Give the backbone structure.
Amino acid sequence: MLVILSGLPGVGKSTIAAALGARLGAPVIQVDPIESAILRSGIPRSFETGLAAYLVGASVAGDQLRLGLTVIPDAANLLEVGRTTWREAATSAGTPWRAIEVACSDAHEHQRRLSSRQRGLDPCPEPTWDEVVRRAAEAEPWRCDHLVLDSIRPVDGNVTLAADHLRAWFVASRS
């Protein structure tokens, strides 16, 4: 199955993705390092470089899904165009997908996490708080059933909630 994570920068998606991937034995495909590599090749930053990173990630995800693996894309997925890219990868691989949104209910903690991030993704600078607020205003709501995790809760608790949710959905879909 494909587990599509979404959420604003700095909410804790990558932390949850890594822990959930370890729990499920699933590869995590991070879009930000892919975009960083595209930019390091000399291609100027644009909407298209971000889209290209999603398309590369979805292509890799599709290959992994066809091998029978569960795959977790780690990307903001704030817009329907990005989510559609992942869903199409799952559909073309003949596998189901589920969505998990990661949020942070404490704005001060979210801002603190964002300001302390240092992922080394040159030439991609970390977004500012103002940019995150702008992205939140532009984000499109999910139009399907999805799990929402609050990253204020402990990571292990969120990973257990996500794994239980995925397991219950998988069992229900097989009955």
Q: What stands out?
A: The longest strand covers residues 97-103. Strands lie at 2-6, 28-30, 72-74, 97-103, 147-150.
